[in-house]
């Protein structure tokens, strides 16, 4: 069994992020709930929703390729995973990434004879990064990593974010970023033991890091597979921010993880006392949350899933169950943030590069959506640990987000 240091070095060599953690522990990871017979339980505004149609968003995918291939700077983003987005008050879009390659991308021919762009095997790898977009064009990378490691052998992965008042009722706005803290560990935790959920505050418009607050410490939970990290996705409604999270059941050889949800009043994300956790019947401060989805066997989610509200219906996207979980996205729906969740509904399989690759971390981007269209990204990575670093260097397209446009429709 490797020690913490060797595991951390292995983690850095592969350059993998949130999604591949789930892929490598179990080939059929990122499971979600199986169909159930429950009927809709809303007030009439909620109705079953599914994917009516989808198509590749080649323009947005190409924009990330253009920016990543730009060799004008050594400290620029060239690839990353854990893709999240946030529109800022001045119209810019902030893109947040987990493990990220910086450096330069070289044009063909590369030393292996292939015709695609490549990066050096010595390209810097940082645990997180942020890129700014304006009018649909990526423009700059903030100094990376944006969020420094909290301690030796620990790192921070940014997940969902929102603009909110500095405090409830305040007229001043700030950016809050949810962070996952992980600690290097032995097998099976070679991609980090879940440690804590934090919230970072960034100033506007400068995006200067002001503070980081720990809102949920999980170090006292003895079973690492039962530790819950919040922030994979969030939904804003009626003055509340609903924050979703998951545990790492797959690392304990359980086929499925559990999904959880908390809610926080607007302006309170950075206040641990403001968080309320769903216990199965009520929203309770300081309580151990109860799963809203998953039985630890055939039902459940991976920690990288996304929820969006469409009219009165909540729609959840994650990878499909079983072997399709490496290639296929499925959708589920509910009438309230805590469920019950119904599905799976229609599935679709977005395009993938050739080779031993996997898709993971489907994330919705409402900031780019509209006119009935929903933009969804998915990350792509080399599936096998053996030779992963070489593959990510030889073909930069393997470690960049890809995009599709989805139209939802009534399920029936």
Give an overview of the whole structure:
This protein is mainly β and 412 residues long. The chain has one domain (18-152, 220-410). It is built from 4 helices and 25 strands. The strands form 7 sheets. Strands 15-16-17-18-19 form a 5-stranded antiparallel beta sheet, with no helix packed on it. It is globular and about 60 Å long. The chain starts with a helix and ends with a strand.
What is this entry, summarized?
The chain is mainly β and 412 residues long. The chain is 9% helix and 37% strand.
Low-confidence stretches: 1-43
Mean pLDDT: 84
Looking across the biggest beta sheet, what order are the strands in?
A: 15-16-17-18-19
Shape: globular
């Amino acid at each position: 069994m490797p020690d913490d240091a060797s595991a951390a070095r292995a983690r850095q060599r592969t350059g993998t992020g949130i999604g591949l953690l789930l892929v490598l522990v179990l080939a059929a990871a990122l499971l979600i709930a199986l169909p159930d017979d429950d009927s809709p339980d809303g007030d009439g505004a909620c109705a079953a929703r599914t994917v009516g149609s989808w198509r590749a968003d080649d323009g947005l995918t190409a924009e990330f390729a253009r920016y990543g291939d730009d060799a004008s700077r050594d400290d620029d983003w060239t690839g990353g995973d854990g893709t999240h987005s946030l529109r800022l008050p001045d119209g810019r879009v902030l893109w947040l990434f987990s493990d990220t390659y910086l450096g330069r991308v070289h044009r063909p021919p590369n030393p292996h004879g292939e015709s695609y762009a490549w990066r050096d095997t010595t390209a810097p790898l940082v645990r997180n990064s942020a890129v700014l977009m304006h009018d649909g064009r990526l423009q700059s990378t903030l100094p990376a990593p944006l969020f420094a490691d909290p301690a030796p052998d620990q790192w921070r992965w940014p997940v969902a974010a929102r603009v909110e008042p500095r405090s409830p009722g305040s007229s001043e706005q700030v950016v809050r970023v949810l962070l996952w803290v992980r600690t290097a560990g032995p097998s099976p935790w070679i991609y980090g033991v879940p440690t804590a959920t934090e919230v970072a505050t960034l100033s506007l418009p400068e995006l200067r890091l002001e503070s980081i607050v720990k809102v949920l410490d999980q170090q006292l939970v003895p079973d690492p597979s039962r530790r819950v990290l919040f922030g994979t996705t969030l939904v804003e409604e009626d003055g509340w921010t609903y924050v979703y999270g998951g545990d790492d059941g797959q690392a304990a050889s359980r086929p499925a993880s559990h999904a959880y949800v908390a809610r926080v009043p607007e302006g309170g994300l950075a206040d641990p006392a403001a968080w309320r956790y769903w216990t199965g019947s009520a929203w309770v401060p300081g309580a151990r949350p109860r799963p809203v989805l998953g039985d630890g066997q055939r039902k459940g989610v991976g920690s990288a899933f996304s929820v969006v509200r469409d009219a009165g219906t909540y729609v959840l996207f994650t990878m499909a169950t079983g072997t399709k979980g490496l290639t296929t996205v499925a959708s589920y729906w509910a009438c309230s943030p805590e469920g019950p969740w119904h599905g799976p509904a229609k599935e679709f399989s977005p395009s993938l590069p050739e080779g031993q690759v996997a898709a993971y971390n489907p994330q919705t981007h409402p900031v780019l959506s509209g006119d009935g269209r929903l933009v969804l990204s998915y990350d792509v990575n080399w599936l096998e640990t053996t030779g992963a670093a070489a593959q990510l260097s030889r073909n930069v397209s393997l470690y960049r987000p890809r995009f599709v446009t989805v139209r939802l429709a009534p399920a029936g």
